[in-house]
Amino acid sequence: MTSLACVCAAGFIHLMHSWALPPERSKVPGPQLPSVFVAIALMDLIYDNRIIPQSFGEISVVLQRICEVAVALILLELGVYAIWKPMERIIHLLTKIFLLGTGLVSEGVFRRKENFWVGCVTVPLSMLIVAFAGQATDHFHFLHNRSFYVQTKVLLNVDAALRYLRRNQRATGMPLPQYAETLQQYKDAAAMCRRG
Questions:
Q1: Of 77, 125, 126, 132, whose CB is crowded by the most CB atoms within 10 A?
Q2: What is the 8-class DSSP label of residue 60?
Q3: What value does the CA radius of gyration of the chain take, rounded to a whole number of Å?
């Protein structure tokens, strides 16, 4: 995994670069929030992976961190400016073609509310990208369903109880109590629900 401080430093540099000195080619109508969401998703993916070779472990830690920041910044810039911004331009054109071509809005209304129309598509799409990245890396624990954790914990406790009861039966030679069968039925039912 890449150092969190290096990824955050690369994200901060990218943020300052994109807001203080924005490239002329990135002037796409629409809100800036989707670009920030995509940058966060990319930072999460970069943090989850090793981005410099393991052979760099022999050089000093300072040089390792500088290399990590540089590579993370390059990947972040490529992801945002080579993948997301062209996608945002395509979404802008498709939204314009759809709304004006179908006659849902006039050209004057579209020009006045252009940021809104583009944002209606790009904001949910970028949030979906963040959710997928969080699911892939398992770093965004607040996106997980709380009941899944509880069910897993309960199932693990059922497994432990069944193991204990079976071990005791073998050691003492006494038959399993009635509730052991009930626990096994609940475990089987939960496994059937998970499978679908």
A1: 126
A2: -
A3: 26
